[in-house]
Specification:
272 residues; alpha/beta; six-stranded mixed sheet; three-stranded antiparallel sheet; 9 strands; 18% strand
Amino acid sequence: MPETKKLIIPVAMTIAGSDSGGGAGIQADLRTFAFHCVHGTSALTCVTAQNTLGVTRVDAMAAEAVAAQIEAVVGDIGVQAAKTGMLLNREIMVVVAAQVRSLNIGNLVVDPVMVSRSGDRLIDDGAIAFLRDNLIPLAAVVTPNRFEAEILSGLEIVCLDDMKAAAQQIYRSGAKAVLVKGGGMAGDLRGIDVWFDGTRLDVLKTETVDTANTHGTGCTLSAAIAANLALGKDLFTSVTLAKNYVTTALKYALDIGEGQGPVGHFFPLLLK
């Protein structure tokens, strides 16, 4: 029999919740990893009952189960990059931070899922404080939306200068690099992101895509950053490539359901 060749492929992990509607969470992350030819692994933090209209139920995983998933993957397969999404509560955050440290998980992208793009608070103050003080300093980059950046920086954000000030303030609190996302901003600032890594302060802009189907953009962006890091690209390049990927996926967003549909993660297949 002919010898089977062993395929070497980078591995990325998502530590996040499940979206039963398939638009965000681990479903979006794993599709994004696959698009980038990265093997995706996962540690499930919670299960949501949701669709394009919203979330009707959330059930948390036991913190010990989250820790066990991470240890099982890293101990056998290893990961070249990881990202966090919805961690839901302080107990889960504690074990995630502990595993990141003890297993030496590098290239960590923290999407601090604390507040929705509409401004709805998703986790309590205790969990927010732990995420800010203990998890974000472990990250290669943190990717807050407008409202999350306000909480992390303590600043009100209404204009581009506010976004720049917030990025610099979050960096000073222990983050290695910050990407303040402008998807929740109004007018010309919609879709403009601000990057700061202690030296470089950049305004990142791609074309604005006019679509109501934007569910999962934050998850997709952070997953694409992690995928590019797993592929060996530097951090800033990973961020810019991820932004371009999300922009194109928005052009082919899926008009499904009665509410806000997801981005088109596998847009080349939609062109056939």
